[in-house]
Predict the structure.
Amino acid sequence: MSLTSFIVVEDDKKTQETIKDVLRRVIISKDNTINIKYFTKYTSELKTIIDDNSTRKVYIMDIELETKTSGIEIAKMIREKDWESEIIFITSHDKMFETVYRSVYQVFNFIEKFYDMEKRLEKDIELIFQKNFDNKMLCISNRNVDLQIFYRAITHITRDKEERKVLVHTDTNVFKLNMNLNDIVNLLDDRFIQVHRSCIANRQRVHEWNWPKNYFLLDNGGKVEYLSKKYKKEVERVC
């Protein structure tokens, strides 16, 4: 799903103006086709937007609104319908941090209004754009296979010696290709780096390198026992 709109729910006029300034500054430089909608409370129009989970959105919400429906309650409604859109909470009370994370699944960030709010919000929006527009793909098409995988979905690529095939590992699948590692390297971008003679890793998906024990941990909890000290210097240079 592509990013189509920013939804701001904020009843403080001064804070809403600050958010508007940040969004104008960042979004116009990125994509002027993206919609921005502003609300001061939960409405039927906002409900319609939440119920439409065909598009990916970014919600920027105050936690405490001057109505009976709080930002946390709105976020719960969002997550009942939509696990893809991002939620950023804005608040005047830093003590709400624990309540938010206990109540709402997958919050992108929690920003205090009086602690570098503008700077932090701008940084978050930049990160969301980077995440959203990372649509580069590994594309392989021949008489034996027609494969398209987002680079960001690939955790690592290994060589199967017995079958003489390349295995492309994702979070949920392993794809077998009649290729060698040298051939596939030319189809990848610079997030991929060779870490073993039989393994290429997506360094953006690696959580920890364990050189003494020759393995690395992925951000999904997986453990890959393909790590050679021969490649340590180059890995540390780019990581």
Notes: The mean pLDDT is 88. Helices lie at 13-30, 44-51, 71-81, 97-103, 117-132, 181-185, 232-238.
